[in-house]
C-alpha cells in the first residue's frame, strides 16, 4: 500500500484514506463566460496526462478532509512531494533525476 | 391509542441495543448515547469557541482535548473541523452559540454511534481493519483521527492504553460492530 504524506495532518497515511482529485494547477478563467469554445475546451477537458512527473490534486477524504497537491511519477507511482493547496508549484527539475525517464527498463 | 401515543414521548431505539462481545483479550460493546457537535471554525474564532464550550479546542493534528470537568471532549478532525462529544448529553449547539465569533455548529448527536473496544487486544482488534499505526508511540492516549475501518469511515479516539472509542455513522454501525466482533475472535 502507498503511504502518502498529508501536509495538513503532517504525517504519512495509508492510500486508503485518500482520493485522487485530478490534475493540479489548472486555473479557472476569471471570466469563464467570455472564453471561446476552444479555450473552454482546453480548460475543461484537456489534461497533460504525462508519462513521468505529474502534478495532481489529492484529497485526504477519510482523514482531515483537505485537498492538497502532489508531485507523482505516473510510471513508478512514487510520490516525490506533497504540499498544501495554493502552494507554489515545485520545479520539475528537482525530481527529474529520480523520475522515470520515459524509456522502458523492462 | 392515539391519546396514549400523544402523551408518551417517542422512544429512540439504540442502534446496537443488546449487542456485546467479550473475548479473552478484547471486548467490543456499544457506547452509551451522547451529545455530539460537528464544529467548523477559523483560527480567529478558536479562543471564543473554546471559552463558550468550556474546552480548549486543539490545534494540533491527531490530538484531542478534554474539558476540565465533566465528560466533554473536542477531537481534531481537520485544520478547521472538530467533533465535540458530551457524555452527559448537554445542549452543545446552545453552548457553542454563546461564542460571538463566526463558526458553524451542527448537532449530530444521532448521526453517530459509539463502539468501545477495550482490553489488551484492543489495538490488534482495530488493526484488523484500520490502516493506521495504532502503536502507543504513533497513536498515544488522547490521539484521535478520522480514518477507515474495513469499508467504512470512522473517527477513532484512544481513551486509554487499552481502550478505544470508535465513532461511526449510524447506518454503518452494524457493519462496524460486526467487523470488530469478528476481528475480536482472532485476537
Ligand atoms: Zn490530512
Report on this model:
The complex is a heterodimer of chains A (106) and B (187). By secondary structure, chain A is mostly beta strands. Chain A contains 2 helices and 6 strands, in the order E-E-E-H-E-E-E-H. Chain B contains 5 helices and 11 strands, in the order αβββαβββαββαβββα. In chain B, the strands form 2 sheets. In chain B, strands 1-2-8-11-10-9 form a 6-stranded antiparallel sheet. In chain B, strands 4-5-6-3-7 form a 5-stranded antiparallel sheet. At the A-B interface, strand 2 of A face strand 9 of B. Bound molecules: zinc ion. The site of zinc ion has 7 residues of chain A, from loops. Residues 6, 8-9, 60, 63-64, 66 of chain A line the site of zinc ion.
Series of secondary-structure elements of chain B, N-terminal to C-terminal: HEEEHEEEHEEHEEEH
- How many beta-strand segments of chain A? 6
**Do you know the CATH topology of chain A?**
Folate-binding fold
Count the helices of chain A. How many? 2
Overall body shape of chain B? globular
Computed Rg of chain A = 15 Å
**Could you tell me the mean pLDDT of chain B?**
95
Q: Could you estimate the helical fraction of the residues of chain A in percent?
A: 10-25%
Task: Please give the radius of gyration of chain B in angstroms.
Answer: 17 Å
CATH topology of the largest domain in chain B: Gyrase A, domain 2
Give the CATH H-level superfamily of chain A.
Folate-binding superfamily
Give the overall shape of chain A.
globular
> How far apart are the first and last residues' alpha carbons of chain B, in Å?
50 Å
CATH architecture of the largest domain in chain B: 2-Layer Sandwich
Amino acid at each position: 500500500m502507498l503511504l502518502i504524506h498529508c501536509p495538513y495532518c503532517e504525517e504519512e497515511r495509508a492510500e486508503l484514506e485518500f482520493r485522487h482529485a485530478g490534475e493540479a494547477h489548472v486555473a479557472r478563467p476569471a471570466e469563464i463566460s467570455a472564453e471561446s469554445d476552444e479555450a473552454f475546451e482546453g480548460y475543461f477537458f484537456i489534461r497533460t496526462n504525462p508519462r513521468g512527473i505529474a502534478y495532481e490534486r489529492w484529497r485526504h477524504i477519510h482523514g482531515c478532509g483537505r485537498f492538497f497537491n502532489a508531485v507523482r511519477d505516473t510510471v513508478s507511482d512514487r510520490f516525490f512531494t506533497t504540499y498544501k493547496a495554493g502552494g507554489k508549484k515545485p520545479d520539475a527539475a528537482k525530481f527529474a533525476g529520480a523520475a522515470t525517464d520515459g524509456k522502458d527498463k523492462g | 391509542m392515539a391519546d396514549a401515543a400523544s402523551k408518551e414521548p417517542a422512544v429512540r431505539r439504540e442502534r446496537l441495543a443488546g449487542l456485546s462481545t467479550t473475548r479473552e483479550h478484547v471486548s467490543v460493546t456499544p457506547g452509551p448515547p451522547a451529545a455530539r457537535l460537528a464544529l467548523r471554525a477559523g483560527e480567529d474564532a478558536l479562543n471564543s469557541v473554546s471559552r463558550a464550550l468550556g474546552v480548549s479546542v486543539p490545534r494540533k493534528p491527531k490530538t484531542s482535548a478534554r474539558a476540565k470537568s465533566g465528560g466533554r471532549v473536542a477531537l481534531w478532525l481537520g485544520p478547521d473541523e472538530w467533533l465535540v462529544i458530551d457524555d452527559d448529553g448537554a445542549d452543545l449547539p446552545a453552548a457553542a452559540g454563546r461564542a460571538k465569533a463566526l463558526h458553524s455548529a451542527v448537532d449530530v448527536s444521532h448521526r453517530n454511534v459509539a463502539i468501545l473496544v477495550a482490553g489488551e487486544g484492543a489495538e490488534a482488534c482495530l488493526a484488523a481493519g484500520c490502516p493506521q499505526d495504532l502503536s502507543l508511540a504513533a497513536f498515544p492516549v488522547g490521539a484521535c483521527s478520522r480514518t477507515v475501518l474495513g469499508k467504512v469511515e470512522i473517527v477513532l479516539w484512544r481513551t486509554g492504553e487499552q481502550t478505544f472509542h470508535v465513532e461511526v455513522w449510524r447506518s454503518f454501525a452494524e457493519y462496524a460492530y460486526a467487523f470488530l466482533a469478528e476481528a475480536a475472535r482472532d485476537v
